[in-house]
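Action item from last meeting closed. Structure (516 res):
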């Protein structure tokens, strides 16, 4: 049984992502496109287009082009758009890196993606320099003061602008490589083409409305993550809105920017919704400009959504997607909110609900795994045909690993997940990565990691550790060991010492037993 969208089919143009995103420049040339929240630094649509073309020209002059990959290690700022779309316009690929990563995590992504150049800011130069050792990266571009041995990003912005989009195959050429753990395992490069990105923007237009020349959208969700990259950076500009960037989340600054900048739409994650619902600071600010708060990246509890909506006086809704789906497949239309629902299937998208045990399709209100197919589906995982084959079947269905059902109105609900990923404040924490790290500790004989429910974070990574005979280590020792090797959101929040990790006959960790 294939469920299709109740929304109208849309026509997806065969066009590269950058000219598509900049399509509003002629009619909004002098309108603010991107504003740096902390400083107020502004690019109009015309300035954004000109600066993007100059970066593309500078990259092209350096030898960058089709087959080249640029790594972007930046916080949210207007120049993120310039680096991303400058590389895209030059015909190359971008890999977006979490700026909180340590050198070893950055190094893994640089090697796997084959990046030959990197863009960062002075704050992350030390990490970048350590990370490029043993990689193909020859040039580190720095936005702002460039230390010796690096290249000022300004030299790209002063180059002769590229006159037109470089030639690309929009259906085959990989435009961006965000990294995701998918349904299991270590982070993998998700190959998204120009057409994947363009398709998802067009598909969501009937349901994620942005009024050209009127909307102001706060961009606190990181651009390195597909949600921030595609829904905020790309789609809002493509639809003629103004993006106000925040380099990191701070509740007071977030509320101040909404109030002072007249923010009309906030795309956020559940922990921010929780703050809007419960934090006493919210009452100190005028949030009346908001007309919509949209939640994604992790499940949002119906009670919290209703409480936040009542408090701030606007719709609080949620949607669903995956990095592998560019990312949106479901969204809630204005006025169509149902508590707990992820909304309707977006245009040009097919969904099956399948019994994970039997492989049989299930009916209305029956829980099964969501399988999804559409033009937003990734090309596959970079350098990993095995993982690609596990995730995408021969008929093109992407197996999400999420368990849910559909009601008689076409609204979908996510109730659980097959996959083992832990969702900490909207970020993906792969247990396999932490387990592999724990096993390198000299006192650890065996280990397992699960997520435990937490109202604020969604889930907290918890480690179960078996010590070697005679070895000693405290909870603090284990936490510190992990903290030194991974990004902040991946760190263990709880450690419990046990005698044995429960496993099946085939050696698979029985996480359900650990959860109980």
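Sequence:
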């Amino acid at each position: 049984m294939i469920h299709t969208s109740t929304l109208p089919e849309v026509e997806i143009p065969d066009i590269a992502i950058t000219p598509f995103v900049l399509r509003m420049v002629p009619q909004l040339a002098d309108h603010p496109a991107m504003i740096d929240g902390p400083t107020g630094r502004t690019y109009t649509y015309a300035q954004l287009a000109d600066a993007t073309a100059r970066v593309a020209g500078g990259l092209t002059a350096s030898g960058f082009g089709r087959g080249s990959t640029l790594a972007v290690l930046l916080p949210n700022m207007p120049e993120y758009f310039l680096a991303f779309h400058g590389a895209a316009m030059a015909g190359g690929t971008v890999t977006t890196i979490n700026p909180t990563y340590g050198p070893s995590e950055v190094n893994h992504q640089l090697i796997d993606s084959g990046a030959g150049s990197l863009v960062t800011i002075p704050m992350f130069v030390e990490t970048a320099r350590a990370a490029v050792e043993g990689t193909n990266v020859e040039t580190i571009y720095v936005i702002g003061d460039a230390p010796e041995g690096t290249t000022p990003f300004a030299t790209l912005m002063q180059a002769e602008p590229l006159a037109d989009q470089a030639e690309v195959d929009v259906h085959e050429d990989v435009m961006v490589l965000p990294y995701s753990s998918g349904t299991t395992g270590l982070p993998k490069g998700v190959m998204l083409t120009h057409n994947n990105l363009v398709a998802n923007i067009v598909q969501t237009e009937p349901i994620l409305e942005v009024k050209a020349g009127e909307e102001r959208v706060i961009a606190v969700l990181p651009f390195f993550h597909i949600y921030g990259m595609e829904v905020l950076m790309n789609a809002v500009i493509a639809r003629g809105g103004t993006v106000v960037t925040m380099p990191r989340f701070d509740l007071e600054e977030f509320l101040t920017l909404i109030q002072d900048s007249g923010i009309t739409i906030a795309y956020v994650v559940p922990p921010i919704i929780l703050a809007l619902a419960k934090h006493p600071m919210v009452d100190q600010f005028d949030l009346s400009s908001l007309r919509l708060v949209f939640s994604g990246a992790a499940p949002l509890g119906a009670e919290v959504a209703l409480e936040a909506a009542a408090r701030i006086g606007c719709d609080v809704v949620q949607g669903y997607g995956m990095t592998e789906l560019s990312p949106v497949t479901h969204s809630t239309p204005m006025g169509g909110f149902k508590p707990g629902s992820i909304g309707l299937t977006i245009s040009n998208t097919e969904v099956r609900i399948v019994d994970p045990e039997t492989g049989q399709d299930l009916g209305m209100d029956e829980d099964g795994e969501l399988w999804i197919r559409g033009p937003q589906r990734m090309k596959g995982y970079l350098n990993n045909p095995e993982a690609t084959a596990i995730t995408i079947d021969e008929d093109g269905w992407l197996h999400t690993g999420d368990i849910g059902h559909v009601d008689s109105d076409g609204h979908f609900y996510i109730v659980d997940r097959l996959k083992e990923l832990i969702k900490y404040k909207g970020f993906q924490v792969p247990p396999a990565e932490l387990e592999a790290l724990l096993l390198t500790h000299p006192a650890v004989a065996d280990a397992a990691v699960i997520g435990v429910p937490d109202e604020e974070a969604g889930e907290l990574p918890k480690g179960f550790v078996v010590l070697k005979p005679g070895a000693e280590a405290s909870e603090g020792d284990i936490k510190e060991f992990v903290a030194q090797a991974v990004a902040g959101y991946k760190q263990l929040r709880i450690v419990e010492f046990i005698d044995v990790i429960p496993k099946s006959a085939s050696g698979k960790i029985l996480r359900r037993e650990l959860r109980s």
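Note appended to the action item: The chain has a mean pLDDT of 94.
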